Amino acid sequence: MSPVEEPRGTPGRPSAQPGDAGATGRRRTAGPSGAGVRFDEERPVTVVLVRHGQTAMTVSRGYSGSSEPGPPLDATGRAQAASAAELVDRVGRDLWGDVPYPGEVVASPMVRTQETAGVVAARLGLPVRTDAAFREADFGAWQGLTSDEIEQHWPGTLEPWHVDGHVRPPGGESVADVGERLRAALDGLRGGGERTVVVVSHAVAIRAALGVTLGSAPGTWSQLRVAPASVSIVRLYTDRRDEVAVAGAPSEGWGPAAR
Question: Taking the model in full, what pTM does it have?
Fold first, then answer.
């Protein structure tokens, strides 16, 4: 006669096993539907990443990096900056109401980001702090060139720069290099209590910030759409289980918040 296993747990219910959520004793933290899953009460630092508005090189599709301070915003870019400012002004109010209203504005030193940040900061009633860690990728010898011009002079190198992530242009940075810089820049904002920081930056830099937050490979970051004056949001925790809350939301069409 085979031995009979003793019953475990409550009749009719499966017993908790090691590794089960119920065995840890920690409850899932309450939050908005769809928010990142947490099992603690830590309140993170929220970083609102705003890409600068349109410039002449945005239109010409030239690679506009950090080796030159310009170009400035064009008329469309200035209007986009105003739209971005209206959207950011709604953060912590009638949009993403579970985060604090912005209390700091940081910008890359490039002319286009300083101009965009000035419009955003004026809307929020805050000064602008400059941090070169949030500058755009250094495109080296590719600076100012279109993709066709790069392909003409350096055949077969532009696609690997985007999809491999570790290829460097002559005298410039790889996507992975930008990621390491942005990882350190975000770490500089991490901790210090719950707050919201607006960072005005660039397409490649914001893709890198989103990519390192997710822990994805640098070669995948070019799959993120970061349009001019778009808004992305990451939330930084001390245990580095960070959250991407928004990626590349267009700023046009939202309108101002009701006051």
Answer: 0.85
